[in-house]
Amino acid sequence: xxxxxxxxxxxxxxxxxxxxxxxxxxxxxxxxxxxxxxxxxxxxxxxxxxxxxxxxxxxxxxxxxxxxxxxxxxxxxxxxxxxxxxxxxxxxxxxxxxxxxxxxxxxxxxxxxxxxxxxxxxxxxxxxxxxxxxxxxxxxxxxxxxxxxxxxxxxxxxxxxxxxxxxxxxxxxxxxxxxxxxxxxxxxxxxxxxxxxxxxxxxxxxxxxxxxxxxxxxxxxxxxxxxxxxxxxxxxxxxxxxxxxxxxxxxxxxxxxxxxxxxxxxxxxxxxxxxxxxxxxxxxxxxxxxxxxxxxxxxxxxxxxxxxxxxxxxxxxxxxxxxxx
Length: 325
Hints:
Blueprint: E1 9-10, H1 16-41, H2 46-74, E2 86-87, H3 95-98, H4 103-125, H5 131-145, H6 147-158, H7 161-193, H8 195-205, H9 208-233, H10 244-263, H11 271-296, H12 301-324
Parallel strand pairs: 1-2
Helix pairs in contact: 1-2, 1-4, 2-5, 2-6, 4-5, 7-9, 7-10, 7-11, 7-12, 8-9, 8-12, 9-10, 10-11, 11-12
């Protein structure tokens, strides 16, 4: 596409046949997304998977009605018109993004999809003059508006309160195992393990730039090591800890950030200013780790404080003493 030149059609320029074609392709896409959500949930969230299966069947019925109308009015050949062909039309996220959503995000995405579909049908009604077409589009707008009730009915059928609670607990547990636990381990490793080399280098050389370079090298190296170690240690199939790629990413990124937090102050040329700020940053890093342990891992706060803050302080002191010697 030429920069600054949008080749997509405006919704106002579509013919009635093209509006029907767009509605058909949109219903097909939504049905596929709901089925993908269902398959993604089937092993761990059977009740929610059944709800999305039901929603996909409703979209199939909408598509069938639209195709029947198109056949009556315009014949068998349906033009290829998709969301991404229309300027200003809301496009769905790519499949590789939606398939990685958590349980609550999938439910929220489904609600947003229904709201967008309702707005589309209301706009489509104003662009058509044929009575049968206006009636069907209006009925579909009402159906999309009523999907909250339909989804609620499906939820009541497949999701009793105990099932909802169990699924929410499982989703929270999966979030902890896949993201929080490896991320926390990485943050602890990055924050604590880099303290000694960074502050030893600082007090041994008194050179803020070299200290910064050593800190970046230690942080990035630790992040790469922790990321690959986490990803290779467990494929998640038996332990249920989730994707090794996600866990490795969480661990590697948080390890790097944990080290960079007290390396970045050494971009300041004044040694004591940089060191003072770095020590303050370390204090907040260690307290943040203690808070995360307490919030997500149910570790008693003062026990977490003893493990992390005091341990980190000892490593910091060791680095300063080694560097000063």
